[in-house]
Amino acid sequence: MIKGRAFILALFFIFLLEENPVVSQCVGLDADAGVDMFTCDPNLPVQLNGSVRGTATRNYWTPMNGVSDPYILDPIVTFKIPGIYNFKLTTEGLSDKNLVVNGDFESGNSGFSSNYSFFKLPGWIPTGAYGIDNDPAPYYVPEFVSCGDHTTGSGRMMILNGSMVGGLNFWCQTIIVKPNTDYYFESFFTSIYPEDPSTIRISFNGNPIQTVQLETNTCDWIQYATYWNSGAATTLTICMQDMNVIGWGNDFAMDDISLYEKCIDEDEVSIEIVDLKAVLDIPNPPKCSSQPFDLKGIGSSVGPKIKYEWSSLGGKILFNNGISAQGLGSGIYILKVIYSNGLTYCEKEESIDYMSPNVLAGKVFGDSLSNCRLDTIQLDAKVLTGNGDYTYRWSPDSLILLGQNTERIRVVQPGTYTVTVTDKTTGCELLLDYEVKQDTLHPIASVQGDTLIDCTKNVVALNSLLTDTARYQFIWTKPDQTQIKDSVKIKSNLSGKYTLTVIDKKNYCQDIIDWNVKVDSLFPQIDLGTDLVIDCKNNGVNIIPTETSQTGMFGYFWNMPTGALVKETKLLDKISAQSGQVILKVINEQNGCASSDTLLIKDVRQLPIIDAGVNDLLTCKINSINLQGSGPTNANTKINWTTNGGNISSNPNSYTPIINKSGWYIMTVTDTSNSCSSIDSVFIDENKIAPVAQLGPDLVFKCSDTLIAINASGSSQGSNIQYNWTSINGTIKQGQGTQQIEVSSSGDYKLEVIDTINGCRDTASIKVTPDQNSPIASISKPDTLT
Q1: How many CB atoms lie within 10 A of CB 215?
Q2: Do the Cβ atoms of 24 and 296 come closer than 8 Å?
Q3: CA distance linking residue 159 with residue 170, whole number of Å
Q4: pLDDT-derived band of residue 365, with 50, 70 and 90 as boundaries?
């Protein structure tokens, strides 16, 4: 039995597309044709929804034959044939600037030209004359009526007594205009005397465009308005003439002359009408429920924007291709026809309720899931109707391990298995499917923990992020290939590669992850050098550490003889003026490894104990002195004498130099082992002042003298003065050793005066000559006896 059901889903979409505006000539005038619209049902009315901002004088839609009323903003679209229709909304308005100068005459008699004469009160206005005022009555009493102006009722107007000469321009004005532009012209007239009303002709650029016939009613303002296109013109001269030449009557007033540029703005809206159809048929119904049959959608809508969706409730869609499909088994078969243009969407459904003859019914049963261990799975085909004599054919054949052509098979791989059951009696076939699902979800092994063994941590702790030991088995393989099982946490002091294997106990799937632990036990290499000494040459020492080339961040901790220093981040030289132990500790801050070195600073400063001896004296009898210095006599002793004013004649580098001149003598003794020196000095004075020996003038030994005295009283005297008298040819009788001696003969006498203290001496000589006046006794030369 085939039953057909039709269902249409018509979706009315309204969506907004980008507008295509026409540039408006008037500020504020804007036509909006509304949003683009779409309908899937031509029988549903589509109403346009236009709007206008600003002051518009006229609105209309085109094409006019496609809407119910083209002059309203919300007409109904009258097109019913499917397609895409574009409707344009045009709005017309006027600019806000009046191009006519003094069109309301509030500026008096200015801005225009006239062939009439200008008249001022008082008096009666003659024919062919005009005045500018707020009431016509005073211009011709009592015939002219009293009227207010058109603008406000109290403003000015142009008051005219028509000329008896026809065709005279009573008002002209030239205005600059734009080429090819529409303009709106407007003016107001009223009769001010009821008889023979005026006939006004209006001309644009010398071309009459309209004749306005005034009425007998007075103070009843008549509007004249028209549109004008400038064409190629760039100026517009507007002139007005009174064509009535009757002298009595023919009196009127004019006010509010204006010329506005016409503005146009346009907008378009798109209306899409779609007549969507869905048709479904089974042209050749099968004889058996196991036989596939064709489903045809011929008669449904077609086109590039049409797509088709096939589905079934109870039956199976074996495959589909556009408006054709193939079904199997009883059920409701549904064809959904969908129209979409990318922005809008509608659909229509058609269905057939199909009941297969000779129905074979059955089911395939399976006992487990496919897993990672590839355990076999048993599938059983059970036929629930029929006479019980069947053949079985399973597919895919390549995946059947055991039982092909039987009702029971064994498989390993996941997938959909199909068995074709054929009733040997009727030839009807039953197609049964069974999907062997797989449980091959692998656990995700993940490790969290330490990655480094260093001087601060010699044991690493590793944790598995999966912790369910009831579901998973955990196997840790350490770098030495030993294993730890069934623990989610381990600790180890080994570096290298750790492997965690996580096995799902249900599906036997597993995951493996490696975790590398590195070793960083590099100790800093530091050397302070040899021990240092503080001596008399060096009052302090420079500590110059050296480190082997290394990279990283290090902390330097000094412990000096004066105390510990704060941590430093750079290796710097140090200076110490104090003896003691120096310790430098270097810590590698990346791995915590530390190294230390020490050196000892000794203070060997000790001055030699010396004595330069006692002061002494140089005299005339002591010309040189052997100084008697004393001090250390070891091999490290260096002796050096210097003098200030004196003279060292020998042995300046011994404790006992010989000196021969008065002055200060400085002894410097240096211990070469520590460069310490001691200084001592001794002063050697000098006493070499010689005594004075003075004897006076020579003496004469007279013949009568037996003794004469030689006196040295002018010589030095004192207890320390010694007198020594000598003569090589005279005779000293007495006084030796005193200041005065007595001699008994002439001769040369010498006195030596000696200072017994300093050994200095002086000499003086005196000559004692014989008396030259003494007789001379002589004996002649003996003669020779003959």
Answers
A1: 12
A2: no
A3: 11
A4: very high
Query: Do 336 and 301 touch, CB atoms closer than 8 A?
Result: no
Please list the residues that pair with 345 across neighbouring strands: 340
Contact 116, 170 (CB under 8 A): yes
What is the pLDDT, as a whole number, of residue 569?
87
Instruction: Provide the pairing of β-strand 510-520 with 452-454.
Output: parallel
Q: Report how far apart, in Å, the C-alpha atoms of 215 and of each of 146, 252, 484, 493, 711 are.
A: 16, 10, 121, 122, 191
Q: In this model, does residue 357 exceed pLDDT 60?
A: yes
Contact 268, 87 (CB under 8 A): yes
**Radius of gyration in angstroms for the set of CA atoms belonging to the chain, rounded to a whole number:** 75
Model pLDDT, residue 440: 85
Which of these ranges, 16-20, 632-636, 779-783, has the smallest mean pLDDT?
A: 16-20
Rounded distance between C-alpha atoms, residue 131 and residue 156, angstroms: 10
pLDDT tens track for 49-89: 999 987 888 899 999 998 999 999 999 999 988 888 999 99
Q: What is the mean pLDDT of residues 138-146?
A: 90
DSSP conformation letters of 4-23: EEEEEE---EEE-----PPP
String of DSSP letters for 124-150:
PPPTTEEEEES-SGGGSTTTSPP---S
CATH placement of domain 117-261: 2.60.120.260
Regarding the domain delimited by 362-436, which CATH topology (the fold level of the hierarchy) does it fall under? Immunoglobulin-like (2.60.40)
Closest to 87 (Cα-Cα) out of 56, 50, 39, 53: 50
Q: Does domain 699-770 have CATH number 3.40.50.10490?
A: no
The confidence score (pLDDT) of residue 360 equals 74
Residues 6+ apart with CB under 8 A from 633: none
The dotted CATH code for 616-687 is 2.60.40
Ramachandran region of residue 592, left (φ > 0), alpha (ψ -120 to 50) or beta?
A: left
Give the mean pLDDT of the chain.
89
Which of 105-119, 514-528, 568-582, 595-609 has maximum average pLDDT? 105-119
Is beta strand 415-423 parallel, antiparallel or unpaired with respect to 429-436?
Answer: antiparallel
Token reading at 318: 């074996």
Find out whether 723 and 715 touch, Cβ atoms under 8 Å.
Answer: yes
Is beta strand 2-9 parallel, antiparallel or unpaired with respect to 345-354? Answer: antiparallel
DSSP state for residue 397 in the 8-state scheme = G
* 117-261 matches 447-520 in fold: no
pLDDT at residue 172 in the model:
98
pLDDT band at 301 (very low <50, low <70, confident <90, very high): confident
Which residue, among 584, 579, 572, has the nearest Cα to 540 in the 3D structure? 579
